[in-house]
Amino acid sequence: MNQASCTTPLGVGNVRWLAKFTRVAECSLPFVMMMFLLMGVARRATAQSWTAIFDDEFNGTAGTLPDPNNWSYDSPTAGSSNNELEIYCGQAGAGQTGDCSNWQQNAYEDGNGHLVIAAKLLPDGQWTSARLLTHGHFTFTYGRAEASMELPQGTGLWPAFWMLGDNIFSGTNWPYCGEEDMMENVPQMGPSTIQSSLNGPGYNGGSSINKQYTLPSPEQVNTGFHTYGVLWSPDLVQYYVDDPTHPFAQFTPGNMPKSGTWEFNGHPFFLIMNLAVGGSWPGAPNAATPNPANMYIDYVRVYSSNPAIPLNLSGTAPSKNVVDLSWNASATSGATYNVYRSTTDWFIPSASTLLAQQVSNTSYTDAGVNAGKTYYYRVTAVSSAGESLPSNQAAATTPHH
């Protein structure tokens, strides 16, 4: 597996593997562009950096099947809970017989650097497709995951790139396992809009926490490749399209209903890609639905935060003018820490909330607080590579006297 790290002034950190077609490395964005972008967005104190921990570039010859070291096929009836119409082909047994006897045509590399997930309507009226997942091959806890995709458009089509908590395979039922949806598109959205969502107890399905993103005109999801991704850290899930330095959605436990529980801290998730046909959300296909309908994936990549995220931040207020913080050290040797403070619950760290830099210990005393107030904190790790994603949020309320 290739591994690469990259730091840019904008925290893009996305080194393009040379086996693909040439494009300007994001590590060499000119200083002028850096300053232009910094003017419009609140930034943290230090550049962000990433280390690749998983990638599939789909550079095989035409007809190559998905790499079995990275991907497994889901069950033929995996979409039944959504009332989907397709059979997911490829899994040994029922996924390779009957209507799935030509299962190799539902997920294959095209020889041009892409994986194709193809939904096909058979002469007997049955749709087939594929749903691929990394369970049993790769999981991760916190970091950045993204896929570059060109999506199909048509009545009844439902392409998706998403993640589930791996504990769903060890007795934790959905939605208690947690679900992070980096990209879904259904016809009702039109050809230029996608939706990113969180699903958990008290907020799932039609009541998920979600936000839609519309591509700049005249771009469409089916006329070019776009990168759909997530930045995942404790108490914070951020979604982006094409640019990880400009997430369009930032979700925290503060976005949940009061009855909800946050299921996205401290346990691994696995990746899923699929092309559904029909179902409760997109509705049924019709005679105009393309057959086959092809979803093209240029690459799938996952990065860990570099340096590693400090965990388990906690705070106490022993007196009216003092808050004591402590946290677990970053797994990156030699890291120092930035401390962020806000009076707004579930804040996102930025330069305006930076309290202290280059803290060398895993504790900090904030002596600049007032009596009878609640303060919120997050901590990041900093090394020569850059700044990590933030820790969980900690809160402390100072006594009145």
If you had to describe this structure to a student in words, what would you say it looks like?
The structure is a single chain. The chain has 401 residues and is an all-beta fold. The chain has 2 domains: 5-305, Jelly Rolls; 311-397, Immunoglobulin-like. The chain has one helix at 31-40; strands at residues 5-7, 49-56, 72-73, 87-88, 107-109, 115-121, 127-129, 131-133, 143-150, 157-165, 179-184, 193-199, 209-214, 226-233, 236-241, 249-251, 269-277, 293-305, 311-319, 322-328, 336-342, 354-359, 363-366, 374-383, 386-387, 394-397. Strands 1, 2, 4, 5, 6, 7, 9, 14, 15, 16 and 18 form an 11-stranded mixed β-sheet that branches. The longest helix is centred in the N-terminal third of the chain and has 10 residues, at 31-40. The chain is elongated, with a radius of gyration of 22 Å. It starts with a strand and ends with a strand. Mean pLDDT is 91; it is low at 1-42.
Quick recap:
By secondary structure, the chain is mostly beta strands. Helices cover 2% and strands 39% of the residues.
Tell me the fraction of residues in β-strands, as a range: 35-45%
**What gap, in angstroms, lies between the N and C termini?**
58 Å
Class of the largest domain in CATH?
Mainly Beta
Number of strands: 26
Report the major sheet.
11 strands, mixed
Outline the low-pLDDT stretches: 1-42
Number of helices: 1
- Output mean pLDDT: 91
SSE topology string:
EHEEEEEEEEEEEEEEEEEEEEEEEEE
Task: Give the overall form.
Answer: elongated
